[in-house]
Amino acid sequence: MLRYTVRRLGQLVIVTLVLSLLLFAWLRALPGGPVSALLGERATERSRAELVEQLGLNQPLYVQYWRFLGRAVTGDFGVSTGVQPGTPALEVFLQRMPATIELSVLALTIAVLVGIPLGYVAGRRQGGWLDNLSITWSLLGVAVPVFFLAFLLKYVFAIELGLLPASGRQEAGTNATHATGFYVLDGLLTREWDAAWNALLHLLLPAAALSTIPFAVIFRITRASVLDVLEEDYVRTARAKGLGAAVIRTRHVLRNAMLPVVTTVGLQTGALLSGAVLTEQVFNIAGIGQALSLGFQRQDYAVLQVVIMATAMVYVLVNLVVDLAYAVIDPRLRTR
Amino acid sequence: MLPGTRRGRRLDELAESTPTTTAGVSLAASAWRRLRRNPTFLVGAGIIAAFALLALVSPLLAAHDPALRLLEDQVSRADNRIPAPQPGFPLGGDQYGRPLLSRLLIGSQQTLLVALTATVLGLGGGLTLGILAGAFGGWVDTLVMRVVDVLLSVPSLLLAVSIGALFQQQSRFTVIIAVATVQIPVFGRLLRGTMLAQRASDHVLAARALGVPERSVVFRHMLPNALGPVVVQATLMLAVAIIDAAALSFLGLGSADTSTPEWGQMLGSAQDFFDTHPQLAFWPAGCIIVVALGFTLVGESLREALDPKKRR
Q: pTM to 2 decimals?
């Protein structure tokens, strides 16, 4: 187990290094190059010259990359030019991270809570009406552009019916203390129940829109996995032994069918972050996704660097944790 | 082997006892037999056929030039007015006063073009990487797979947007490149896996033992057998490409030229009018959803049909 962990950590380091190399090249390939990228189009000639000196752009590329790496390690990615001008890019990222995590966690929770039970029931009653209905739903979920669904939900439930808030993270003027930046959690910690409830209501529509693709994937993997496991010899043996149906369902079918689902849930991090970029834009949530789309619109490459690097790291780390958890559940993997 | 010998006789007996009626059916043939009766596949294939046909004949169907601002006098920025449906213009006009129905019809062409070119490019790149990694193994495999891992570790939309931003001026071409780049690592990883499985298989070992040249082993023996899952994925990716192109437009990285319509671009640029004129988004979104559903249905039924486990 220890060797497996060490090997996976080693892979993580390599992926990070390759990513930083690509990011370094990307920043230099952008129209205008890093100086315009970091200072903006309207910078004066003097500040440009200063930045060229400061960034060492007059030095050989390998020296430049080494310095880029050094600054990145200390969290210095430059100052935001477009999203929140003047604020260090890392700080912009850290301020906005809780909103995106809150949204993604709720979306993933919805996808898991609906997808796994539905996939299990659909797999056990293959061809039944519930099976057909949920398959249709999951296929449709993949075919509908996430941002259009977000708009549709917002239009129907917020604008036409007025049931849920249309934008933002919390009602303006709500008396709320924000200690952690996770608004729902803040409300619960400080016992400001109204504030927590209000923040949760704001999350419902965007999370519902965001959950469709993870739901579709989780549902289908669960269903396929249940179908596979039901045909296994050990399930037949368990039946032949005369074990109760409930015991077979929980101990033999459900437990083994969950193995591929665990990995899939981890892989959804990427889809969630992609979707968050779009949903946050629709619902005007000040999260990482919005920082990204704003960053591209206003060419704030300092912020873009941090966000791309950090989201990739989060993605890789989550999958590392999932793989380790998987290795704990399934000992065969450790030796590979 | 002489027919009179004891061993020869036994071999003859064995040959006769082998049932000849169940002559081998290739996986493709049996897949096609099942597909023909699969309603999911038929619906999906029907949608795709209709879409392709529409792209071909839309110039004949469209009553107006999609680039002309025929109803511009009915557009008002100040009181947020766009042309309503009227005689000659069943769906009214868009935010520039251009005929919406004609734009939708003609838009099928560019939508098909984006989906096909992006997927073909992504497939080409992925095949190259996958063949390199899967056929050679060793350090080539490690190197290629590390790069693929990194590309896969960046959320797909983020990667597409990063590639799109590299271009000074956004055009349909840059959208296609951005969408294709996202697909390359997906195809590469998939093909590498199936190629590695082929490498270890007995028929490849047999080909090597017979002295078949390495190049022929890779392209004639391994690749054709490894392509099944890739074909399925490509069908699904056609749907993803259309949706990704729409997302790029939504984030402001769509083609800067709006005279030749494309559904994703129409949907993405309708965002400012969604609350007031939802029809601008509904029509292109509806078209995208139906076509994406068509590709998904065909892809999923292909996957099922090519699964040897389900073969009966």
A: 0.83
